[in-house]
Structure formats: structure tokens, C-alpha cells
Amino acid sequence: MTVIVKTPPARKATTRLLWLDLTRKCQLACGHCYNSSGPSGSHGTMTREDWVGVLDQAAACGVRGVQFIGGEPTMHPDFTALVDHALNAGLEVEVYSNLVHVSQECWEIFQRKGLALATSYYSDRAETHNAMTGRRSHGRTRENIARAVRLGIPLRVGVVTGDEDQAAGARRDLEALGVERIGVDHVRPFGRGGQGRVPDTAKLCGRCGSGVAAIGPTGEVSPCVFSGWMGVGNVRHTPLAAILSGDAMTRATTAIQGAAGRNAPCGPDDEECTPGFPGSSCSPRN
Ligand code: SF4
Asked: Full-prediction pTM beyond 0.85?
């Protein structure tokens, strides 16, 4: 008897959002950081030309938006040049920054059309916020949130806490500053947030890799920023479109869907995991 094995149709590259995870360097060392970034983190092995190539390929293969993240993406030496390149390529850009230090050059590029900002906030109380970030960062982040609002830069803020009263206080404070887009989310069990536990596919939201993908500081592509250990190819030696539509990506997303359950909510608001370019509400810092 002949057994006919049906070959699944080739997966189309339907990725709409790419997280450009530029660096593991950050001024802070937040207790919940999903990729354990911090002051001793590195910018990885991707060169400026590598990142420019990724942006050009992304625009050519139908990606609509990119989110610059890390680590603290503004600390990457090529940050403003890459944002400029992305905007010029017609991509929507969101920058997820801790807003601790914003240079004049960054403020200028943040005001470009097509760019939006996102940040995390932990409490209206400085000592509580600082206990999470590991530095006295509350005043600077709060000041820069207010400045972004005054400048009319589109901004969304993710409040990360499991404490309802703390979330309510942070929300009131942000609303008083004029922030309109506020989400509340929990700590994800990855990186420092995992407190030493091995990353568990079942803890992902289940939609990773569906229309989204992340590229890390070494060029490794994964289904999302939280699933960095599930590498599916490297843009330094494989074209981006081939990785996004490749078998390894299909296997990874299928495994995630199987373990986590497709469409399982990953935040109390559910909307939190509609990952991220302008217009969405993902808070991948968490
Ligand atoms: S969560 Fe963000 S701000 Fe905090 S250490 Fe990680 S990258 Fe830096």
C-alpha cells in the first residue's frame, strides 16, 4: 500500500512587526527584566550594516513596523542612524525606552512623523519604582514622560506590578501627567523575571511568531522577544524573508501554540499581547 504524505503548503512571510532587540546594555537592572539586561550588557555582534540590511529586507518583504528595544536601545551607538533609516524606509517605528537619559539628538528623532514611544513605569512612589529598577531612576523617567507628552510624541506606558493599589496609584500619576495610553501587566517569568527558572514555552502567550518576530543582538531570529532561546535562523547568513517563512519558524510557532495554547492571554488586559508597533499595546519589557 502506498502511503501518501501530504506536504504542508509553504509558509508565507506574513510578519507585520519586527522587534529589533539591539542590545543587552542598560543603565538599569530591573528585577523583572525578561532578558537580564544591565550595565555590563553588550551590543552583540550585529554591525550597523547588518541592521541596515535587516531594515531594508524588512521593508521589502512587507513588514509594516519595527520596535527598537533591548536593553536600552538609545544606548546603542547606531540607534539614531537606524531609526532614521527605518523611518526613511517607510516603516512605522516604536522605541521602547526606559526614558532615563534622553539626549537632544534622541528628542529630535522622537518627534519625527511615524515614530511612537513606549516605556515602563512601576509606581508613583519613587522608592517603589527605584526598588524595581535598581537605581534612583524614578524622577528622570517621570520627567521625560512629562516632556514627551508636552512635545506631543505618541506615548504608551506599561505599568508592571501585580499589586492593584500600586497599579492604580501609578495610573493616576500618569494620567495627571497627560498620558492617555496606559496598560497594566504582570512580570513575565523569563530572564531575571524568571528568578533562575529554565524558560518555559508554556509561559509564552501562544501567539509568538504569528505576524511577529524578534531579532537579537547577535542576529538570531526568534518568534518574539520573550522566546529568545528558540532561535530559528540568523540574519547574518540567511535572508530575513527565508527565516520568517522557514520550517524552523513554523516548528517553533507550532511548538509554542501547542504548549501555551493559541490566543491564551498573556496579560490581565489581554490586549497587552497584541505585540507592538504603533497602534498596539504590547509591553515586552515585562
Ligand atoms: S527591563 Fe528595560 S530598563 Fe529594566 S533592565 Fe531590562 S532593559 Fe533595562
From this structure: yes
Name residues contacting ligand 1 (CB within 6 A).
26, 28-30, 33, 37-38, 70-72, 98, 133, 285
144: Cβ contacts below 8 Å, ≥ 6 apart: 99, 100, 102
Q: Is 76 helix (H, G, I), strand (E, B) or coil?
A: coil
Q: Specify the CATH class of 17-260 in words.
A: alpha beta
Nearest atom (ligand 1) to Cα of 191: 6
pLDDT of residue 222: 96
Q: Where are the domains of the chain?
A: 17-260
Mean pLDDT (10-residue bins), the chain, 286 residues: 42 80 96 92 98 97 96 98 98 98 98 97 97 97 98 96 93 98 84 79 77 96 91 97 94 84 46 37 46
Strands (DSSP E) along 88-144, which ranges? Answer: 92-96, 115-121
Quote the distance between the C-alpha of residue 93 and its chain's center: 12
